[in-house]
Amino acid sequence: MVVVKKKKKKAHVPFRLNMIFFIVFMLFSILILRLGFVQIVYGDDFKREIERTEDITVNNPVPRGKMFDRNGKIIVDNTPQDAITYTKNQGANQEEMLVVAGHLAKLIEKDVKKVRERDKKDYWIMKNPERAKDKIKKSEWDLFTDKQLNDKDLYKLQLDRITTEELKELNKNDLEILAIFREFNSGFALTPQFVKNKDVTKKEFAIVSENLQFLPGVDTTTDWERNYLFGDTLKTIIGKVSSSDRGLPSERLEHYLARDYNRNDRVGLSYIEEQYEDVLHGQKAKVKNITDKSGNVLETIVVSEGKRGKDLVLTIDMDLQLAVEKIIEEELLAAKKTAKTTLLDRAFVVLLDPHTGEILTLAGKQITKDPKTGKREMLDFAYGTFTTSYNAGSSVKGATILTGYKTGALHPGDFHYDSPIKIKGTPEKSSWKNFGNINDINSLKVSSNVYMFKTAIEIGKGHYEFNEPLDINLQAFDTIRESFNQFGLGVRTGIDLPNEQVGFKGPLKLPGFLLDLVIGQYDIYTPMQLAQYVSTIANGGYRVQPHIVKEIREPLLDNNELGPIVQEIKPTILNHIGAKEEWLKRVQEGFRRVMQEPGGTAYDDFKGAKYNPAGKTGTAQAVYDGPEMKVYKERNQIPPEVMNLSLVGYAPDDNPEVAMAVLVPWAYEGDKGHHANTVIGRRVLDAYFELKKQRMKDASKMDRSTQLIERGTQ
Question: Known InterPro entries for this protein (predicted)?
Answer without folding.
Answer: Beta-lactam/transpept, Beta-lactam/transpept-like, PBP_dimer, PBP_dimer_sf, PCN-bd_Tpept
